[in-house]
Design goal:
This protein is mainly α. This is Ion transporter. Its main location: membrane. It is found in: Membrane. It holds the Pfam family Ion_trans.
Length: 300
């Protein structure tokens, strides 16, 4: 039996959601197949269409924040925004309708994102600008969270999410080393430079150390003594090398996961569970034999 210890995509995004439940037959199963199963032709077309709509809706949100643009094309932007809102509302209702456990989907991460993507437009309509909220633009800007919906339809987001989660402890250790370096070198700079050169406290010196080590270099606080400049040069070189560490950790993890595992939406004919690996021969939940997986290169 194939090893199934690798995390499934179901715990990241609802492309393979056994937790939500797949209907046995009927219209709900058909809608489920289109919305959730990315390995089908209808599912791929649905995903491409949703990605295009999300990108267009984000463009509308951005244009809506430009005063000159809203003055010239305010009405078309309003029509487009309501069109996108109604489409996303219909998609959200369809997702709740086609799963066996709608509450589980509604309280999942992407279920909440789906809800947030439509609520601001309705709130902006229901709440007068001069009453409860001082500036209704805060609600309108929440529509930008629609960008998170893209992660539902692009498989690389899932791979990156799994790699970050698997690398979490290594990155945490790395960050702890960086924090210790910032604390130690910031304290040294506070002693060397002193308040007369702008290093008025250890937190201020740590701010400078953080800016220097991350190679941002705002220039609002600079060392004036030769020793301070030497320490600053050392921190710049240290930061240059340090920045490559988390990149290497995540890249190595992504490479390892790509070599060892590829998520699919294969469904067990017996218990209807999903998310089996491409080379799995038996269901990870009930042990039933699985039909042969037809690999589709277009999903890569």
């Amino acid at each position: 039996m194939t090893d199934t210890s690798t995390p499934a995509a179901a715990d990241i995004a609802p492309h393979t959601p056994p937790l939500f439940g797949k209907p046995d037959s009927g219209l709900r199963r058909r809608i489920y197949t289109i919305i959730f199963e990315a390995d089908t032709s209808a599912g791929r077309h649905f995903d491409v269409l949703l990605v295009a709509i999300i990108l267009l809706s984000i463009a509308v949100v951005i244009l809506d924040s430009v005063p000159s643009a809203t003055g010239a094309i305010k009405r078309p932007l309003t029509v487009l925004e309501w069109t996108f809102t109604l489409l996303f509302t219909a998609e959200y209702i369809a997702r709740l309708y086609c799963v066996r456990h709608p509450w589980r989907y509604a309280t999942s991460f992407f279920g909440v994102i789906d809800l947030i993507s439509v609520l601001p437009t309705y709130f902006a309509l229901l709440v007068p600008e001069a009453s409860v909220f001082l500036d209704i633009r805060i609600l309108r800007l929440l529509r930008i969270f629609r960008i998170f919906k893209l992660t539902l339809y692009i498989n690389e987001y899932l791979r990156l999410g799994r790699a970050l989660r698997a690398s979490g402890r290594k990155i945490l250790v790395f960050l702890s080393v960086v924090v210790m370096a910032v604390l130690i070198l910031g304290t040294v700079m506070y002693v060397v430079e002193g308040p007369e050169n702008g290093f008025t406290s250890i937190p201020m010196a740590m701010y400078w150390a953080t800016v220097t080590m991350t190679t941002v270099g705002y220039g609002d606080l600079t060392p004036q003594t030769n020793l301070g400049r030497l320490i600053a040069a050392f921190m710049m070189l240290l930061g240059w090398g340090v920045l490559a560490v988390p990149t290497g950790i995540v890249t190595a993890e992504m490479t390892s996961q790509r070599m060892n595992w590829k998520p699919t939406t294969r469904t067990c004919p017996s218990c209807l569970s999903e998310g089996h690996e491409a080379d799995a021969k038996y269901c990870k939940d009930c042990g039933e034999s699985l039909p042969a997986y037809q690999y589709d290169k277009s999903t890569d």
